Amino acid sequence: MYIEFNDIGRLIGKGGIKIRALQDESNAKINIDRQSVNSEGQTAVRLIGTREAQQQAKSLIEELFTDKNNAPQEKQQKERWAALPPMIKNFYKEDPAVASMSKERVAAIRRSNNNIEVKHVFDNEETSELTIPNPVETFEQAFKDYPDILQEIQKQGFTNPSPIQCQAWPILLSVIPREERPGPNVLVMAPTRELALQIEKEVAKYSYHGIKAVCVYGGGSRKAQIDIVTKGVQIVIATPGRLNDLVQANILNVTGVTYLILDEADRMLDMGFEPQIRKTLLGVRPDRQTVMTSATWPQGVRRLAQSYMKNPLQVFVGSLDLAAVHTVLQRIYLIDEDEKTDMMHQFFREMGPQDKVIIFFGKKAKVDDVSSDLAIANIDCQSIHGDREQQDREQALEDLKTGTVQILLATDVASRGIDIEDITYVLLDFFLVSRKVNQIDTILKLYKT
């Protein structure tokens, strides 16, 4: 990347304190190459480290100079946000039974729900004065003032809140009349098309006062998505790339967004979407309600929370550290490389008629190679990775869900948010998968119920 020559001192900081801090936070080495200058007279900055570290360092440097360049625009921004209708928060009315809970009762409920923990992410004077809502034990306690929503929840067969829901619902509930706002009211950002489409599918199950939702993602018909967006929707579910495309083209207006959800935030950062996320959030009102979900709690997610959330609460079940799922039998096999294919074929032959398996690979080419080998061996399977057409990816998941095939070969594009309840086996690291966190998250998701 390149920076203005006059900004070198700002990047280095007094005695090198700033550049050292940026290197520590990003885990990337930052070298300023004063001898390398582009045609615009800008100086080259070399970022050394993993792809994730380089992307994080680049975002931090851009943020450093964005703050400087945006200073004269602060007044204009304040006037822009002041023109929007006021946002009503804290409309949640605590049920009397919930409000009267003793500290011992609250602790017991959290403990019985897989050791729920809730705390302020950042400690300061403001957070010390904020009250953390008590957990609810029933949906009626959370939605007693909203019978239409309660009825929709009951239609889906839900009887009691899950452990995360019993503490999260009292925190998350807030609203503003949608007829007063331009553009969508709710924006959900997800890392992959598959997860975005699955969220849209879940939203479609709930009918409430004519609220409309649309899913916008790369690989889908841009024209069709634009047609739906321009007709007016209240909920937009999007991948960062396509969302940023529509916002920059002035097709999608996000100034009216009052409820922002960053789903699988850690995965979006892993995929290098931080610049698109930050660019999009510049157009969203600062007093929005923001929710981030994440399987892990890395420095990048913490930094996003610090930048775009005010006095956030963190709710998690059990521990933030990765741990074994005790309801899943886990086995480790040490196999010579030249024996893996034979073992895989033997595994497939021993599968029962109702069994289903997802096998993760580290490279797209390996998925294609194994898929071809299985076809030659007359073993039916489906495959999913980033280079396949969107309709083929959707068909692959549908075939596994319906039982048309029992075997799905995948890269980490299928590692988050894929909801297939009857998976019986997940094979990890079969051909040297380099990253395991996402696949472990898949096991957690598949067996969470």
TrEMBL record:
GO molecular function, one term: RNA helicase activity
UniProt keyword Hydrolase present: yes
Domain Helicase ATP-binding span(s) in chain numbering: 170-315
Pfam families listed in its UniProt record: DEAD, Helicase_C, KH_1
Helicase C-terminal domain residues: 327-449
This protein's record includes keyword Methyltransferase: no
SUPFAM superfamilies the record matches: Eukaryotic type KH-domain (KH-domain type I), P-loop containing nucleoside triphosphate hydrolases
InterPro entries: DEAD/DEAH_box_helicase_dom, Helicase_ATP-bd, Helicase_C-like, KH_dom, KH_dom_type_1, KH_dom_type_1_sf, P-loop_NTPase, RNA-helicase_DEAD-box_CS
Superkingdom of origin: Eukaryota
Motif (Q motif): 138-166
Documented EC number(s): 3.6.4.13
UniProt domain DEAD-box RNA helicase Q: residue ranges: 138-166
GO biological process: regulation of gene expression
Name of the top EC class for this enzyme: hydrolase
SMART domains assigned to the protein according to its UniProt record, in alphabetical order: DEXDc, HELICc, KH
Keywords of the record: ATP-binding, Helicase, Hydrolase, Nucleotide-binding, RNA-binding
CDD domains hit by this protein: SF2_C_DEAD
Family statement drawn from the similarity comment of this UniProt entry: Belongs to the DEAD box helicase family.
PANTHER family: ATP-DEPENDENT RNA HELICASE DBP3
Name the UniProt record assigns to this protein: RNA helicase
Organism of this sequence: Ooceraea biroi (Clonal raider ant)
